[in-house]
Amino acid sequence: MPLVSALIPTYNRADRVGGAIDSALAQTHDELEVVVVNDGSTDDTRAVLAEYADDDRVRVRHNEENRGIAATFDRAAEVANGEYLGILGDDDRWRPEKTARQLDRFAQLNDDYGIVYAGGVRVDDDGQTLTEVHPTVHGNCYPEILTEFPLAPHSSHLLRASCLEAVGGFDTNFPEAVDWEVNIRLAREFRVAYVDEILVERQFHGGNVSGGALTGDPAYQVAARDRIWRKFREELRAHPETERRFAATHEKHRGRVAVGDRDRRRATAHFLAASWLDPSVEHLGSLAAATIHPRLYDALAGRETSPAEVLG
Prior knowledge:
- InterPro entries: Glyco_trans_2-like, Glycosyltransf_2, Nucleotide-diphossugar_trans.
- The chain has 312 residues and is α/β, with parallel strands linked by helices.
- It has helices at residues 17-25, 45-50, 69-79, 98-106, 161-166, 178-189, 211-215, 218-237, 240-260, 264-277, 281-291, 294-300, 307-311, and strands at 4-10, 32-39, 58-63, 84-87, 92-94, 113-123, 129-133, 158-160, 191-203.
- Helix 2 links the parallel strand 2 and strand 3.
- Helix 8 (218-237) packs antiparallel against helix 9, helix 9 runs antiparallel to helix 10 (264-277) and helix 10 runs antiparallel to helix 11.
- It is globular.
């Protein structure tokens, strides 16, 4: 059986990282190691990780200073011995059958498939389901992946280690949207497949590293997309339709930032630009909220009641 390496970067998650490790160790696929890289945590993370010192399936490394999520993932990948690498956030959980189901899927695929991902569920601290995410993208997703990241959740990804090595690993200079950035490069060279089952639990709480992505926080989205644009500008320009959709969504998020800032004029300008680039219902609805229905705009900005109550 092939060896699978679970990659867990962690930073100041002493209260959660043990759960992630335990979920990896509970996999029904026996040939598995867990690689944890502590990214300079200042809480009790080091002590929690020391509890696994007698388990030879768990390998721990410590960064003496905080280097960021991409550099920490990259170090974990360098340490790993597995033929396959599983991405696992330190506050996420794998269901026991996850790696076995994904390896079964890989066995059905050609070598040009580099990633198998799966569905995920977002839960709160009480274990209550908030939302479910089901996979839909299969095969070649480039250049469409330049527009947005369609392969969530990242903690569901199982990838061939050789594929990650072929594209140069994680970009250690990329602080936001690490999952999106590395998967753009992977999708450029390899195809993707999925297991249509919920195999990952994502813990939703105020301290999520990817909290901006989980909640759709517009400021996070704008910062991430700015970096994607700067790095992949030439590729986007080589695909004009993809570039147009990217620009439309970027303007929409900028408009949402302006709504949060209670700047109606700026919000209107961004939503108008988004609608001009992509006259979809989503963008036209945002434009209408900002221009036609002031009370609905106020609701979106959090000044009064909910949008549904405004509309009756």
